[in-house]
Design a protein that fits this description.
Residues 1-20 are annotated as: Disordered. Helix content is 36%, strand content 19%. By secondary structure, the protein is an alpha/beta fold. The protein folds into two domains: 28-250 and 457-468, Aldehyde Dehydrogenase, Chain A, domain 1; 256-431, Aldehyde Dehydrogenase, Chain A, domain 2.
């Protein structure tokens, strides 16, 4: 008999939604095998066909906007405005990938024509383009039930690359995942393509993660979530007879540095903005400012006083599930006992998986007394570090890899050494802003040095597609045996680099 499980409403702690059937090992293996069988057909789709599919998926998801907002609100307790907006973010990023593949930009075709006079030796005809990796396993995130979930950025970029996707639903919002899955497969079949391009796996059994990571037909993994699970996936992937890449985005402290000049100019405004950023989404963003660095002078003292005044009145929504709430409470309890740490608290939320927001204030000299101060804690908390301004560079050097970092400085204030150091740690550096807003654009980078990410790639923006392709060079091939994007006639009429010159013209 099949096992079932039920989601829980974080606001009440009560079961919500339909019972969901858990997939067995045999079902997971069969889904992967079915995806493997059709991968060549999907990889062979033209830019126009691939773009049409992505746009159809976006349209299908958007048509379920009201239903998705309602069920995801119940399963996550996130505000209706937040989940409704997230549906549209999901749709918009899928359409952005459609525009990219329609132009052929995902293929990156480069052609160096044969040249007998090339130095130091004659050059053969070399033609390079990108090919999809194969079947990709994606793991949905807990904190973004749509934008980083079943059809979120990881899945969308893999599909855009031409890779069949087997996605593991997050058990905290399984009904949301099911509705999205049905919308995606409806679009796929309407485009005349095999539904096996996209498969959903459901369940609370932790072994499902192992089955997906270790199956020999899986060629890459995309993951957004905790360092604990991300590191497990990396370990499983490396232990395979044939290791595969794991593109894991695993969270971050995202330190924000405030200069004395910035605080003298507007400490009140910055204190409120910093706390709003730290508490956004109940502190369950991987871009939350988990470390706030202020000077140990009068300007820093004023900032902390303003934080305490504002923070004491703040109450946040419940955390996403029981596990997150339990880990948060345990971490807060432990840090509160650390030497030299002052605790600032907000308003307790007693309902469901509610918690008490907590901010910790500590001198840089005392940070070494508790390792947890420099670790990510998922929930409504942040650590304010007081440090001499002339030690900011040392503080930055002591940080591990980050998804993002920020500097608040005064007018015309220049900090080239601090900026340079932060670029060595973070994938995105912000000037006079906060890291919690991540625009989905071609220029975006959502990734950083270890342990924020497992690679130098991004999980947000158009470049995330290139995680799931690899370059292949065709040397001295007859024109009629080349992929279309490399043929002389350029049948897709896409931009190519031919002998170092960008052109969408045919080769005579």
């Amino acid at each position: 008999m099949s096992k079932t499980f039920t989601a829980t409403n974080p606001a009440t702690g009560q079961a919500v939604g339909n019972p969901i059937t858990e997939h067995s090992f045999e079902e997971v293996s069969a889904a992967i095998a079915a995806a493997e069988k059709i991968k060549a057909k999907f990889a062979a789709t033209t830019p126009t066909q691939r773009a049409a599919l992505l746009n159809a998926i976006a349209d299908s998801i958007e048509s379920e906007k009201e239903a998705l907002a309602q069920i995801s609100h119940l399963e996550t307790a996130l505000p209706m405005a937040r989940v409704t907006g997230e549906v549209m973010r999901t749709v918009i990023q899928i359409r952005a990938f459609a525009e990219l593949v329609k132009t052929g930009g995902h293929l990156l075709p480069i052609i160096d024509l044969a040249d007998p006079n090339f130095q130091p030796v004659a050059r053969p005809d070399l033609r390079k383009s990108q090919q999809p990796l194969g079947v990709v396993s994606i793991f949905a995130a807990s904190n973004f039930p749509l934008a980083f979930s079943v059809a979120g950025g990881d899945s969308a970029s893999a599909l855009a690359a031409g890779c069949p996707v087997v996605v593991k639903a997050h058990p905290s919002h399984p009904n949301t995942c099911q509705v999205v899955y049905e919308a995606v497969t409806k679009a796929i079949t309407a485009q005349g393509l095999p539904k096996e391009i996209f498969t959903l796996v459901q369940g609370v059994n932790p072994e499902i993660t192992h089955w997906l990571a270790k199956d020999p037909l899986i060629t890459a993994i995309g993951f957004t979530g905790s360092g604990l699970v991300g590191k497990l996936l990396i370990k499983l992937a490396q232990e395979r007879p044939v290791p595969i890449p794991v593109f894991a985005e695993m969270g971050s402290l995202n330190p924000v540095f405030f200069t004395p000049t910035a605080l003298v100019e507007k400490a009140d405004e910055l204190a409120k903005a910093a706390m709003d950023s730290a508490l956004l989404g109940s502190g369950q963003f991987c871009t939350k400012p988990g470390i706030i660095v202020v000077p140990n002078d009068a300007s820093g003292d004023k900032f902390i006083a303003q934080v305490q005044s504002y923070f004491s009145e703040q109450k946040v929504g419940p955390l996403l599930n029981k596990g997150i709430a339990t880990r948060f409470i345990e971490a807060i309890t432990s840090i509160s006992k650390a030497k030299g740490v002052k605790v600032l608290t907000g308003v307790n939320n007693p309902d469901g998986y509610g918690v008490t927001p907590s901010i910790f204030v500590v001198d840089w000299a005392d940070v070494k007394n508790h390792d947890d101060l420099l670790e990510e804690h998922f929930g409504p908390t942040s650590v304010i570090i007081r440090a001499p301004f002339d030690q900011y560079l040392a503080v930055a050097k002591a940080m591990s890899g980050q998804l993002a970092s920020a500097i608040h400085a005064g007018n015309d204030e220049k900090l080239p050494e601090l900026v340079s150091q932060l670029t060595q740690k973070a994938g995105r550096v912000i000037w006079n802003g906060f890291p919690t807003s991540v625009s989905v654009t071609a220029a975006q980078n959502h990734g950083g040095q270890w342990p924020a990410s497992s690679s130098h790639t991004t999980s947000v923006g158009l470049d995330s597609l290139f995680r799931f392709v690899r370059p292949v060079v065709y040397q001295n091939f007859p024109d009629n045996q080349l992929p279309a994007e490399l043929q002389n006639a350029n049948p897709y009429a896409i931009e190519r680099v031919v002998n170092g010159v960008r052109s969408n013209k045919a080769i005579n």
